[in-house]
Write a structure and sequence with these properties.
Length: 83
């Protein structure tokens, strides 16, 4: 149980039984509405071009080349350690 839920329960303690039942009914109704809302799935085309180029200050091809080289270097080091 989260801290927020515990705090809400603590605040609901002084309510009468009738008020607690009304609160519970309202929370259930609210949760049902949220659960029935369709999940909006975004398409990649919706975000295409949203980030500036180059996003990290590095050209994409340079990044691919660098990370491949780093991977090759690491594998070679591991191979040499085993031999």
């Amino acid at each position: 149980m989260t801290v927020l839920v515990k705090e809400i329960l603590r605040q609901a303690e002084p309510l009468s039984a009738d008020e607690q039942l009304k609160l519970a009914a309202l929370l259930i109704e609210q949760a049902r509405k949220k659960a029935s809302m369709p999940i909006v799935r975004r398409k990649w085309l919706d975000v295409a071009g949203a980030a500036p180029y180059p996003m990290t200050g590095e050209d994409a091809q340079d990044w691919v080349t660098r990370t491949r080289q780093e991977g090759d270097d690491e594998r070679e080091l591991q191979w040499r350690r085993k031999n």
